[in-house]
Design a protein that fits this description.
- This protein is of the alpha/beta class and 219 residues long.
- It is built from 8 helices and 6 strands; from the N terminus they run ααβαβααββαβαβα.
- The protein has a 4-stranded parallel beta sheet with strand order 3-2-5-6.
């Protein structure tokens, strides 16, 4: 497998993916608002080529508020108010790295272009209804993506935040890659250890040891 486009084409031929596509298209045709926009659904794959992935930050499903989701986990379009989870990520980063200045925008595209794959476990959602597209097939698609990363690449840092993300741990070889786990950055759980997790400096220390380019977290 040479790139994500090969992987996506291969999965599109599978029965589960055809059913998934039919479901999402049907929801859009029925007049429901589905996030992100159709052209943004696979942005995590389009912005971070398979061979370049050095870090994976796993989220749950896209933001379900107007104009927020654009296909990258935890990231929002530049002109949208920061959601609480992202504010908490910035807070954790500032505690981890005293030189980090939390930006006023929430667009994490600059991370994606450095090899940080911002992947949700489910890639679409109905407006205002969190988890509405769970168990429709996306989980299998993202399982396969992680299996491919695990087999294809060396020394990736996987940041698994919260129970949904941690379900993917069984597909990752901990001897070949670095697995960092914490509670989710949501306000409901972040106070239980997320702020102190130091995942960003730990990721860069691991990448440096593996002779890989570190990530510039400052946006």
């Amino acid at each position: 497998m040479t790139d994500w486009l090969d992987f996506i084409e291969q999965e599109k031929q599978q029965a589960y993916f055809k059913q998934l596509t039919a479901f999402v298209e049907g929801e859009r045709l029925a007049g429901k608002t589905i996030y992100p926009a159709e052209q943004d659904v696979l942005n995590a794959f389009l912005l971070t080529p398979l061979k370049d992935v050095r870090v994976v930050i796993l989220g749950q499903d896209p933001y379900h508020g107007a104009g927020q989701a654009h296909g990258l986990s935890f990231s929002i379009a530049s002109d949208i108010k920061l959601p609480p989870s992202l504010k908490n990520i910035y807070k954790a980063l500032a505690l981890d790295d005293e030189t980090f200045t939390p930006p006023t925008h929430g667009n994490l595209t600059a991370w994606a272009k450095q090899g940080v794959m911002l992947l949700n476990t489910v890639l679409t959602v109905e407006a205002g209804k969190a988890h509405s597209h769970a168990k429709k097939g996306w989980e299998l698609f993202t399982d396969k993506a992680i299996e491919l990363l695990n087999a294809n690449n060396e020394s990736i840092v996987f940041m698994l935040w919260g129970a949904h993300a941690q379900q993917k741990e069984k597909m990752i070889d901990g001897n070949k890659h670095c697995i960092l786990k914490s509670v989710h950055p949501s306000p409901l759980s972040a106070h239980r250890g997320f702020f102190e997790c130091q995942h960003f400096s730990k990721a860069n220390a691991y990448l440096q040891k593996a002779n890989k380019q570190t990530i510039t977290w400052q946006l």
